[in-house]
Amino acid sequence: MTTTSLPRYPGRQRVTQARVMRSEWIKLRAQPSALWSLASAVILIIAFGILYSLLREARPPQGAAAIRSFDPVSVSLSGVELAQIATGVLGVLLITSEYATGLIRTTLAAVPRRLPVLWGKAAMVAAVTAGVTLPAALAVFLAGQEVMSHQHLAVSLGSPGVAPAVIGSSLYLAVCGLLGLALGALLRSTAGGISALFGLFFALPIVAGFLPGSWSGDIGKYLPSTAGLAVTTVHPDPATSLAPWAGLGVCCLYAAVLLGLAALRTQRGDAK
Amino acid sequence: MIEIRALTKRYGTTTAVEGLTFTVRPGTVTGFLGPNGAGKSTTMRMILGLDEPTSGSVLVNGHAPRAHAAPLHEVGAMLDPRAVLPSRSAFNHLLALAATSGIRRSRVDEVTEAVGLRAVAGRPAGKFSLGMAQRLGIAAALLGDPATVVLDEPVNGLDVEGIRWIRALLHDLASEGKTVFVSSHLMSEIGQTATHLIVIGRGRLIADTSVADFIASAAPPVVRVLSSGQSALAGLLRSPDVTVTPADDGALMVSGLSAGQVGATAAAAGITVFQLVTEQASLEDAFIDLTKDAVEYRAATCQEEK
């Protein structure tokens, strides 16, 4: 290995939030595990959505009431419920990969105020997740409606509440990424972060299901994933689900609170 | 310039660093020495604002570590050369780091060129040998042309050519007026590079001195003499201030006199001198001598834990 002398590099090199976001973008696009999480989110959205649409085409709703309450939008967007884990894992990995390798020390030494790093990662996970999953949601909606149109069950993108459900699905997946990021920043461990994510998305709804009678639905619909998934529907059942945007709002609140706690933990104490 | 005042760091009941006070000045290479576990890395993390001191203060270039507006221009550091995402290329690793401070892509190229990694910059950093990882860590430390450079065990894992390279690099950085602070647990690695030394053991300051004074204070030079009348000469040399001990090969080891004084005494008595050498205590000996207590303490604790 040959070496040459290094020229000086004068000038002020201030850290700004925009620059940290650019740094996080460079890191994300050069982190294969993060890209795999995104790819699996897209595959899950599309594959599961088409599969379930085919199933409902084969077994269409019977009777007037069932047809009235049938929600072809949520059927075609059913893959979102699986993809939420993929985008949540993406959020976890973006921060825990740095703690696991010790890279976090290099990162925080370069940005000693620390919080711009958390906000930069949050902006990246939200923007990239929404940006990548929106086309997937749109594609699976169109494909699913095409499948279900054979049974005259399909709706168009212009119907009331349909476009918001498609857009809301990708926004919900972005919020899942933020939940994962917050859990990762709080627990600083990949295994811990992903376990907490499963607990939040799957274990809590199961526990709520054990609650007696109407409590089950009343409490259950405020849980993060149940609340957030309301946005994938056009006709949610009021007994078990919040209204679409109210549900997404509740889910955002969880993310905001957890991100706030993550910020406190990041800002204080030792970075390790 | 690094100013450390009454710095203490505790993790639970373990005290890693206790009451450290010293200043690292610009324009020279300062070695930071201590046995493994002495608290060197902990101190360096506090210099970078990564660990919060339990008490005491750290100022880098006159500011608290977490108050720098342009951190990479103030202090460049390598703490752990293996702290990279294994799958990310060395170039992207540096590019992301540079981006936080708006440092241009051309500077990333300059730095990779200077550390000799230009040809392999596109490879995943996790596939690098330890020597290459060290060079990548040093490249990261130099990105922002920092006023203060902090390197934790930079020589570790380098081959002879790499060690020579880093010595020249550290001298160049110091001659540019930078503050250069380099840790090591091996005196031999740092003795030829540093001009000033901070020695710690068990988290406490043992010495804050120039390399020359450090050697002189720890072990005075010994004169080795071989002559035609060893026992006669020994009798002439002995006095309350002078000790004479025979070496295995029959030579006399004289401490407390210069080589000139020993030679003059022999000449006056008509004794022929075959060999007369001043033996300087090595840096390693001086270091081991000074940190003996700290090492013994740690060995004892390990046994208790068993």
Instruction: Note the beta-strand portion of chain A.
Output: under 5%
Radius of gyration of chain B: 24 Å
Give the count of helical stretches of chain B.
Answer: 11
The oligomeric state is: heterodimer
**Overall strand count of chain B:** 13
Q: Sheet with the most strands of chain A?
A: none
**Terminal-residue CA separation of chain A:** 33 Å
Quickly count the domains of chain A: 1
Low-confidence stretches of chain A: none
Give a written overview of the molecule.
The complex is a heterodimer of chains A (272) and B (306). The mean pLDDT of chain A is 94. Chain A contains twelve helices and no strands. Chain A is mainly α and 272 residues long. Chain B has 306 residues and is α/β, with parallel strands linked by helices. Chain B folds into two domains: 215 residues, P-loop containing nucleotide triphosphate hydrolases (Rossmann fold), CATH 3.40.50.300; 60 residues, Alpha-Beta Plaits (2-Layer Sandwich). In chain B, strand 1 and strand 2 form a beta hairpin. The radius of gyration of chain B is 24 Å and the shape is elongated. Classes of the chains: A mainly alpha (272), B alpha/beta (306). Chains A and B meet through helix 1, helix 5 and helix 6 of A and helix 2, helix 3, helix 4, helix 5 and helix 6 of B.
